[in-house]
Amino acid sequence: MSAPLDVTPRTAGHASFDRPLVIANVSRRRFLQGVSALGGLVLAVGFPAPLRAADPPKYGADGMANGWVDDPLVFVAIAEDGTVSIVCHRSEMGQGVRTGMPMIVADELEADWKRVRVVQATGDEKRFGNQDTDGSRSTRHFLDPMRRCGAAARTMLEAAAAARWQVPVGEVEAKNHEVVHRPTGRRAGYGSLAKAAASQPVPARETVRLKDPAQFRYIGKGEVKLVDGRDIATGKAQYGIDTRLDGMLYAVVARPPVYGGKAASYDAAQALKVPGVVRVVEIEGSPAPPEFKPLGGVAVIARNTWAAIQGRNALKIVWDDGPNASYDSASFKATLEEAARKPGNAVRNDGDFDAGIAGAARRLDAEYYIPHLAHATMEPPAATVRIVKGKCEVWACVQSPQGARDLVAKRLGMPAEDVTVHVTLLGGGFGRKSKSDFVLEAAVLSKAMDGKPVKVTWTREDDLHNCYFHTVSVEHLEAGVDAQGKPVAWLHRSVAPTIISTFDSAAKQEAPFELGMGVINVPFAIPNVRIENPEATAHTRIGWFRSVSNIPHAFAVQSFVAELAAAAGRDQKDFLLEVIGPARRVSPQTLADTWNHGESPERYPVDTGRLRRVVETVAREAGWGRALPKGRGLGIAAHYSFVTYVGAVAEVAVDDKGQLTIPRVDIAVDCGPVVNPDRVRAQMEGACVMGIGIATLGEISFKGGRVEQDNFHAYQVTRMAGAPREIRVHLIPGDFSMPLGGVGEPGVPPIAPAICNAIFAATGKRIRRLPIRDQLKV
Amino acid sequence: MALSLTVNGKSYQLDVPPEMPLLWVLRDVIGLTGTKFGCGIAACGACTVHVDGQPVRSCSTPTSAMANKKITTIEAIGADKVGKAVQAAWIDSGVPQCGYCQAGQIMSAAALLKHNPKPTDADIDDAMSGNICRCGTYVRIRAAIKRAAGQKGATT
Question: Is residue B156 part of a domain?
């Protein structure tokens, strides 16, 4: 930061953590500052934050529950026919992890990819290391352990060959699925060496020789096809909803329509008359906080899904709606706005905002609103459970298989060792499938049916009504600018129900991990900055949604910078670069960000040079400044999240009726070294489309405590005709000495502000409330 | 009541309610799980199958309406020349992310190309906008359809 700063880095003294916090198997455990060092499952355990603060900090994979494992005997098996099996311990939900992780191992192993088979791990973090597939962390945390795994296995094959030939190990070399004795040219295939290699000692970690990245054959090349591509294209791929077991029953659940409600009474007589319905079972609700516990309700168990749905339609249930029966989105928006217009808890203070704004030439303010969102994974939540002789088996589309395992074990009152969680493919995750409430429903119902296999399927209505919603927020910004329009004072009040409320009903303030998503850690060259976080109360289950709080924060910050640029009569891109300021490495602690995405502040500072570079790159590649016909405009936005830098330029067209189209989006991404360039591009393309959906269509609203949207006709998402014809992704090359950034999420946040800034360029109309919907209609 | 059904060239005699949607007959009764449930109201296209060569949303199609008709699902579309080309284009273009919607996308794309071997971008918008992909693979779906059609560039 160019301006002098005298901010004391905030540690555990933040309001949210002054008192004991109740945590239940939080998948994004690292999000919860101070909680991360706890291994395994922590259920309903209160502990004072200062105790945690005394622990030495752990970062990256070290800071995650059960950390990492790099034992080749855990991850690699070689058959005598030469087939190499590599375990993928992270959940595949479209990010390509079942291709990427094994590809890393195969590269270091010098395996021929054509002879590699991928095996999905069950939920077992003691064996495999952390499996919570969220936070854009899989490649970031496991590139190094997986490289060591492959290299260690390669070393063992070389040692086995050297022993067989009685030659010095220095004379042999593994190359493309065989070991070669250099002086004689003798060769032995991996299959023939497999047995002997397996009995070689696993080399000590520090002796394992990693490849020179210049020798990589798969990593960074983007030539490996998706391991599941053919199965997906031919209908063979197995998702959670596709599980079929002998004697399996099918269930759907009528859940309380209002969070916190319960069935006061129900009449199942008509439901039981529906052909195919076997039984009606009440699922006990859970007291607040919601955690990942089932919502309760009435389940209909049948011979097929359709019969279960018909049976549910025939249930007569009287609901007691409970304390959230008056939750109403329109009035809640007003409540948030009221809070945003009054001072709130200051979470960052640089310089003197009051003095800065008092001395400013001009003062501007704006408020931005983003509603609740639902993930709406194409595969709704679904899980199958079977209990046989005290052993429970689960088949489910879960992002946190160990968490699911622990929670099922607790609910069924059995040791976790007796629960096996088979991880299927996930038909989308986006954070929803980190929460195992749907798995627990299946467990409860299987138990009620004497252990018979029961599959619970959520319908789309269930999914939209009973989601863990993305929060709803009002972002209030004020700036004082000098005579040239340059900001000298910056105030950002962020008001949104916190995800912590899902684990602690009393929580009303954003947690460090939420503030650290683009509100507190904005590295602008502004001398007087104040960030405030007034209180907000949650009235539904709040959960993380792809890129989480970065969505409202980036929308507000990047829109407001563009508003300041317009007020100053400046080019938006030039102005943005000026606000970012010169290239420098800013410590997150200087920005009062104690979280830093769980990464080391030394290894991962906020690098404004990299942020500038994505802005400059995307502007150049998008042809920033090019002449456009009337009704067309370009808008730019840049955002740093998940320790990755992303810049986006959207080109929009608004016709004379106010119809919006987005013909092209350019995205520049700097995530450090790139393991699978094709999948990084794919993630950016997908994030762009999701960002467009958030900007233009997406809204979950409540009335009388109930979600108003039932299905895709009302909860609209981007379709083919609304997607850009062109999405151009520009990868900023990074070398393997740099730390990795995340990829799954950081593409989302800059899209909505880039679009709204482009709309302003095209029409002069400023959008401050999402979704845009018909706000442009003339 | 017994219903007779022909799926992927195979005949089935099924004791299911006549109003039971084809989707659940395929998935839960016959066991062909490649056809996906996404919404149940014909709003997302995940359940798309071919009935006598026409794309149909199986979640909203009563099974009783399927007598004497030929049903083709994702599991058998590869036996068709166009279907096979579409599947190959999907794999080669790296279309899928999570892949869940792609069976329906492929069925819609194959139906489009059977009737319109050289679709324009507007044709693709029309034929494919009933199919939601939440991962947002639309740019690659468009590219893969053109690839399967043997087209090189865009024809906006």
Answer: no
Is B43 in the same domain as B96?
no
Whether residues B68 and B85 fall in one domain: no
- Cβ <8 Å between A721 and B125: yes
- Across the interface, of A95, A238, A723, the residue whose CB is closest to B136 is A723
Strand pairing report for A84-88 and A116-120: parallel
pTM: 0.94
> Which residues of chain A does B31 touch, with a Cβ-Cβ cutoff of 8 Å?
244
* Residues of A in Cβ contact (< 8 Å) with B96: 94, 226, 228-229, 232-233
| Average pLDDT of chain A to the nearest whole number | 93
Mean pLDDT in residue range B71-80: 98
Q: Tell me: do B8 and B56 sit in the same domain.
A: yes
Residue numbers of chain A with a pLDDT score lower than 50: 1-51
d(CA A255, CA A262) in angstroms, rounded, equals: 8
Q: What angle do CA A53, A522, A674 make, to 5 degrees?
A: 85
First-to-last C-alpha distance (Å) of chain B: 51
Spell out the domains of chain A, with CATH numbers in brackets: 15-63 (no CATH), 72-230 (3.30.365.10), 240-323+381-457 (3.30.365.10), 329-374+468-763 (3.30.365.10)
CB-CB: which of B27, B35, B136 is closest to A686?
Answer: B136
What is d(CA A172, CA A180) in angstroms, rounded to the nearest whole number? 5
| Domain around B55 | 2-72
Residues B50 and B105 in one domain: no
Three-state DSSP class for A286? coil
Q: Is residue B143 part of a domain?
A: yes
B39–A721 CB contact, under 8 Å: no
Cross-strand partners of A219? none
Rounded distance between C-alpha atoms, residue A442 and residue A214, angstroms: 49
The whole-angstrom separation of Cα A670 and Cα A610 is 7
Give a yes or no: residue B86 inside a domain: yes
User: Of B44, B72, B100, which residue is a domain's last?
Assistant: B72
Q: Tell me the residue length of chain A.
A: 778
Tens of pLDDT, residues B19-47: 999 999 999 999 999 999 999 999 999 99
| % helix, strand, coil for chain B, step of 5 | 40, 15, 45
Q: From B126, which residue of chain A is nearest by alpha-carbon distance?
A: A721
The CATH code of the domain that includes B135 is: 1.10.150.120
Nearest to A405 by CA among A416, A392, A413: A416
Residues of B in contact with A726 (CB under 8 A): 139
Structural domains of chain B, count = 2
What pLDDT score does A2 carry?
A: 35
- Measured between CB atoms, does B139 come within 8 Å of chain A? yes
Contact A233 B91 (CB under 8 A): yes
Query: Is B90 inside any structural domain?
Result: yes
Look at residues A562, A554, A567, A556 and name the one whose alpha carbon lies nearest to residue A579: A562
